[in-house]
Amino acid sequence: MGIYESLGIRPVINASATLTRLGGSLMPPEVIQAMNEAAVCFIDMEEFQRRVGERIAELTHNEAAYVSSGAAAGLVLATAACITGDDAALIHRFPHLDGLKHEVLVHKSHRNGYDYTIQQIGAKIIDVGQPGQTTLADFEAAITDMTVAIFWFQGAMTSADDVPLADLIRLGNAHDIPVIVDAAAQLPPASNLWNFTHAGAALAIFSGGKDLRGPQSSGLVLGRKDLVEACRKHGCPNPNVGRPMKVGKEELAGVLAAVERYVNLDPAVLEQYSEATVTSWCDALSGIDGVTAQRSFPNEACQPLPRCHIIIDTEQLGLSSNDVMEQLRTGTPAIIVASDGDTGIFVNPMTLEAGEDQIVQQRLVEILKH
Ligand SMILES: *Cc1c(COP(=O)(O)O)cnc(C)c1O
Q1: For atom 5 of ligand 1, which residue has the closest CA?
Q2: Would you call 324 helix, strand, or coil by DSSP?
Q3: How many angstroms does the Cα of residue 57 sit away from the middle of ligand 1?
Q4: Are 75 and 278 in contact (CB under 8 A)?
Q5: CB of 117 shorter than 6 A to ligand 1
Q6: What is the pTM of this model?
Q7: What residue owns the CA closest to ligand 1's atom 14?
Q8: Would you say the CB of residue 182 lies under 6 angstroms from ligand 1?
Q9: Rounded to a whole number, what is the distance in angstroms from the first to the last CA of the chain?
Q10: Chain segment 118-134, per-residue pLDDT in tens
Q11: Which pLDDT tens digit goes with each residue over 208-228?
């Protein structure tokens, strides 16, 4: 921890989620080793980016793959790719899109902070339908000769009231409009690396720095070869719209190692550890007066893993959830959990290192029994 201590930065135990604000996730040794190896030698970056893409495409059963500097950058490049294809003259048009098709259809209920990435290069989002009542006919009616893509955000924004993704893919195919899935946090399961594209999505976009545990500034754009090639043209080192979203040789090596590791993981290990940890937390906390602790599933990003939902009787305990979170955050070691209003807390085992599950449990018992 030399670097953090020397700057007066306190390390925290992350019992919240793979949050970019906390550093996302921690890289396993094989990822760090791959980055170290890549760091000490010059290579042809375009060739390296292409070879890494080919290998990731193979590992993830996709036609093609591009490594971006994060899922958010992947959304920018995918949008740009849908607008220009590989037309060199059009690629240089950004940010001046007058006269170019540049409308993107999105369920109104899927709108979220990450869709800024679509708009930042000049594309226009057209909201479709109303939350809870959107039909395929709404999407059909929204298609015009300005439509370049349909974006689908998979995760907490997705609901049973959505037009099914399969129907949108059929609609998109009928009109030659690509459907792009933002699946940034949709790992596990590893099979999502190919599920969306095999279902007909033109591209599926993932964060390299969440459960994949690659470098923080890495992401994957997986799917159709022509669109992946267009992303490549928009991206660094080409002096185009993706030039500031540089991916270094270290990130390329690291994310490849992370994908190799991830597709070979036994999914039962994380699942069993998560279930056992949540059960242990629930057992230890449920007995405390004024505290209810329950298994909650799926977690905040809708990954198929459990969290512990702690509900506090604030009057009986004389503490709000914010008080408990503040004590966790300012205690030693510092622990970050997620808030659920004034009376609830979510505690997530997914981002903990070995042994931290017990530290979190002890601190929670101490604070809540007080
Ligand atoms: C995390 C997330 C992103 C951004 O991913 P980065 O790899 O941090 O750029 C985009 N979309 C959704 C839905 C996310 O959850």
Answers
A1: 71
A2: helix
A3: 20
A4: no
A5: no
A6: 0.97
A7: 184
A8: yes
A9: 31
A10: 999 999 999 999 999 99
A11: 999 999 999 999 999 999 999
